[in-house]
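Page 42, continued from yesterday. The earlier attempt failed because a stray header line got pasted into the input along with the sequence. Redoing it now with the clean sequence only.
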Amino acid sequence: MTSTLSLDLGRFIAGLRFEHVPTQARKAICIAFADTLGVAIAGAREPAVQLLKAMLAPTDGPCILLGRQGRASVLDAAWINGCAAHALDFDDVSQRGIGHASASLVPAILAEGQAIGATGAQMIAAYAAGYETVAQLMHHDADVGRYHDKGWHPTGVFGTLAAAAACANLRQLNAEQCAMTLGLAASQASGLIVNAGTMTKPFHTGRAAHAGLASARLVASGFTAATDALEHAPSFLHAFSFAGRVDDTIAVRAGIDWQICEGNQISVKKYPMCYCTHRAIDGMFDMLRAHPMRAADVERITVSISRRNCVVLRNHAPQTGLEAKFSIEFALAAPIIAGRIGLAEVTDDFVLRPDVQALMKKVQVVPDDRDNPDRPGYAIHDRVIVTRRDASEIDSGPIAHVRGDHDSPLSIEALWIKFEDCIRVADVGLDARALFDQLVNLDQVHDLGRKLA
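This time it went through. Structure tokens are written below.
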């Protein structure tokens, strides 16, 4: 068999087993499952999910719909649960802040895993196959951090291939079949960032889970696709790349250099907001701890963020909780008014409060064009300055890191508090403590669907 990008990745996907996955990676993947399933259970009743479910009209099937929403076919379960995983925009972030891999990976793996009777250990291996495949692909494009600038939502684009690789691994397809699965998935990769702040953004993750799973199943049945779709010019990456600076000749090191352990680790979100807001939110909370203030004390809030993030955070006067998730103005007003920014704040009622609307108007956004080489699309640092009515200023100083990121990870207790809050909001009668403990030890679980039912 020749050596090409697609086939080399196909060999990696086909050959990966649980025992090959490093201990550090296994732990990270268990946390990803716990965090993703928690936010998906909480997100299952969101309008986007319910409308998608009504359209698909599932009646029964081998797979559960999260949040005790019934059962469905394998493909419908992946689609609906994938939408639920991203509906609250509270799911984890990966690939240096570029995408949300888990929101497509976990629902696809959960659905296919139930269908074929996969163990937790096999699901961990499948996640690793999907995650590392996408991490490898991102190395080939020098401008991967600028997908947003071209209009693409990277999660919809790369999530499709991640889910495809994971499901190909679960089904134990051979290397050529795995390469074809990537080729078929590549023809379905899509998602426009202009839809941020609407129901279509979580639709991207659900559709990616659905398309990736369908690709693996079709290829397993004899369906064909190109085995060089990732490198034959103009390739998959060339089609999406901002400037076309793609190098398809870089050696595949998936399974050798584990990106989930170093370089492209998973970041768990502390706030149910677009990740582009999180550095500024951290800075605001730090200032409030040192200098308590009320909305009436504020004359002006000035925030500097990257120009790319200014584009993503397009909602300057949000009127709904969904729109507010993509508003830097709301991100900085809510902590001052509520003292927190959790699921209770990203609601229509809270966003429409007169004091919230008034304080958002006092936020001024200053684009920063200094690129961060370690986090594509971000500025070197963010900064928040609050000017009070007495003319004094409070300065956050440079904010270069995010709480929950790999260099400042959330503690297991903080992860549990977030998970418990999600299960409480869902109000579906699940034993949160027992479920969390099982998920962070996923390798010991043999029937994950039954634990979630």
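Notes: The two ends are 44 Å apart (CA to CA).
Reminder to self: strip header lines before submitting.
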